[in-house]
Design brief:
- With 175 residues, the protein is of the alpha/beta class.
- It has a single domain, classed as Rossmann fold (3-Layer(aba) Sandwich), CATH 3.40.50.360.
- It contains seven helices and six strands; from the N terminus they run H-E-H-E-H-E-E-H-E-H-E-H-H.
- A hairpin with a 2-residue loop joins strand 3 and strand 4.
- The radius of gyration is 15 Å and the shape is globular.
- The structure holds flavin mononucleotide.
- The site of flavin mononucleotide (FMN) has 19 residues, from helix 2, helix 3, strand 3 and strand 5.
Length: 175
């Protein structure tokens, strides 16, 4: 079985080269980025107009998530029609999709090819987030993947990430 992570980077190249795959993550999402960078995939960051540092940034994130409001983001630079699949990742905020990723899904819904979703979280809310993402994208995901902050920081995500990557790229061969 292909294992993605620190010990098996060769399989990551197979993922990158055999499918036109784009990962979209919010530019400030540390754990989202940390969990999927091992795949060596093509990543475009969702760039926000305003930062979220400190206590007020935290409160704003919470309020936007609870109120289901999108934030102000820059227009995507990618031509989505040139990809087979777009994989969208979000942190879980108040059991909801984060406001920048909500904004991305709302802005790009009409142009998304096949989609897959992943989220990073403290521990609870992934199912509700995947449901919200499906509604916002207007289509069911090919695969979903939830990884906790603890798993990312201790690099215990190899098996889950490998299964997700396999679902995204059926032609991944054994490493
Ligand atoms: C405003 C806010 C709300 C959060 N709400 C939840 C939540 O409802 N459930 C949960 O499991 N984690 C929650 N978390 C924790 C984050 O989902 C978790 O730290 C995640 O790994 C962050 O990912 P990132 O580093 O990619 O942004 C919340 C974090 C923030 C900042």
């Amino acid at each position: 079985m292909a294992v993605f992570g620190q010990k098996s980077r060769n399989a990551c190249g197979v993922l990158k080269n055999s499918c036109r795959l784009l990962f979209q993550i919010w530019n400030d999402a540390q754990n989202c980025g940390g969990s999927i960078r091992a795949l060596n995939a093509n990543i475009e960051e969702i760039v926000e107009a305003n930062g979220r540092a400190g206590f007020f940034g935290y409160v704003r994130s919470l309020v936007e998530a609870i109120q289901k409001n999108p934030s102000a983001i820059a227009q995507s630079k990618s031509d989505l029609s040139s990809y087979d699949r777009v994989v969208i990742g979000t942190p879980v905020w108040a059991w909801s999709v984060s406001s920048p990723v909500r904004a991305y899904l709302m802005a790009n819904k009409e142009h998304l090819p096949e989609v897959a979703f992943f989220c990073t979280l403290g521990g609870k809310g992934s199912e509700s987030v995947f449901g919200q993402m499906q509604s916002l994208a207007g289509k069911a995901p090919l695969a979903v993947y939830a990884v906790t902050a603890g798993e990312v920081t201790s690099a215990r995500y190899g098996a889950g990430l490998a299964a997700f990557a396999k679902a995204l790229e059926p032609s991944v061969s054994s490493a």
